[in-house]
Write the structure tokens for this entry.
Amino acid sequence: MNTEARVDKWLWAARIFKTRSIAADACKNGRVTVNGVQVKPSRTVKVGDTVGVRKPPVTYSFKILKTIEQRVGAKLLPEIYENVTTPDQYELLEMNRISGFVDRARGMGRPTKKDRRAMDAFVGPSLEGFGDFDFDEGWDDDEEED
């Protein structure tokens, strides 16, 4: 068994990225770190290293338990790495999922009914009763001054 593996091959083999070329591009674009240092695709990793993968808005962290360069079945993944991503990253992911209507991609159109309800729930009762306010109160345009 190899004691080292290329980081791009390991990311692909561990099913963190769908293809090896996507894993290599992530390395080239500075979205992959090994023990806190940005790496190139050819960098080798060994057992015990911590690999950080930034997939906005979250940075996932994996501790390598086994170095592989051939893709394995999903059931074997617990033997390959341990997910050590901090809980605050998952909170960030959940907040982003909940408030997905805020960062709507340009051209995506109007909010859906579900998004509208989520926005109303987010804004909350602060605007309730706002419709009861009479904007014309105190302004008498009908009366003429002498």
Summary: Residues 87-98 form the longest helix (12 residues). The CA atoms of residues 31 and 55 lie 7 Å apart.
